[in-house]
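Risk register update: the risk of archive-format incompatibility is retired. Evidence:
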Amino acid sequence: MESLAAVDLGSNSFHMVIARVDHGGLQILDRIREPVRLAAGLRDDGGLDAESQERALKCLTLFGQRLRDFGAEQVRAVGTNTLRKARNSRKLLSQAREALGHQIEIIPGREEARLIYLGVSHGIAGAPARRIVVDIGGGSTELIVGDAFEPVSVHSLYMGCVGFTKQFFGDGKLSRKRFGKAKLAAGLELQPVEMPLRTAGWERAYGASGTIRSVAAILEGAGWAHGTITAEGLTKLEQAMTTAGRLEKLELPALDADRRLVLAGGVAILTSVFEQLGIEEMWVSPTALREGLLYDMLGRIQHEDPRDRTIAMLCKRYSIDQGHADRVQATALGLLGQVARDWDLQSVDAAHAIAWAAQLHEIGLAVNYTGHHKHGAYLVASSDLPGFSRDEQALVAALVRGHRRKLDQSFFEALPTELRMTAVRLCALLRLAVLLNRNRDPEVVSLPHLGAEGNRLKVTFNEQWLDAHPLARADLEREQRLVKQSGLKLTGFEEE
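Archived output:
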């Protein structure tokens, strides 16, 4: 049976979980955790220092050895808050991909929250349907209310145990005054989401990941709670920490050396969550983001891709002409199939990207026909797209931006360097698909023959076709001029 691997490049720790697909479910085979403390290396100028990068690459090299025999479709690796924020993350990611031997996605905060909720929901089967899930990571905190496997209210906040410990307890001193300041700062972050979460409501609160599991273990070891986290137990923990006075003097049961370094910030955030949301007791989930990644991969394998649901939702929300979008998609995929090998576009990701862009290429009409490719790109780039990584979202937005009018290399500058040529080539195929369906005829378009070599695309039509479609010939000749600035050259248009 096929094995899957999920790699979570967190702000405090890097995790890898390997599971086997077994009768439609997952059986965990292996877990590895390394305390990389990436967020601790985030400098004031927004860059990651050399030491934290070295720790990250060393860990990923270790993970890569374990994943050496895994295919690309069996591994999903994601970076979270610190890699979202770091100014020099692109350079690090290039080295990280080489060390791991697999692609690494940077996911938006709300996508991180969705995956956490998915992982937790699978780990607490049979629990009350409506629940709130809280995950305090190294650089961000996610709060999600949902029913069963469906999130209802999703939020990701820029506060985490590493960042808060560094900001409020950086010299190791623990005091009531410092905890007060840290809790006040956390409360200010929570204020905008408090009412949406309370309005959504929940029957039971769950916590996930390292901070919450560590706090639960400490409370149980000290006799302040029994398997859960309580408001009373948190008060006693804070008192014990301020009594110790310094991080290095903390003597608490079940507190390991790695967690000691970031515990204070995590406790301050968790206490504020309890106070702001009126939580009295929180149950601990055995699963979190990495398990969510595994179940998300399993869904894609079983053709239940959340990204497809997201695209369908956008089409409905913005009243896209579905028949026309489907025809453009079919044409684009037909054209892609002809040049995929020659243009190195054989991956499933390329087919997905051009299909999604074809579905959304007219989304900007909801704003205005004039410049609708620009409006559409903005809507795609700025919307919450569950299931999409940051680069996937940027790629679809770039394809929508470039599907008409002038095609310029600048449209693709937000993409990783290694993805830009792929984007330009996909955009050329999408433009041709849109052009061939310009008359919005419900009949299936007769595909031209394509030949690709380097940046040259030769387009040849069947005998008499161009004579019967003079507007198409004019459009194609105009297209030659419009794509020239992108570095592509369209040729052909000869009748066979």
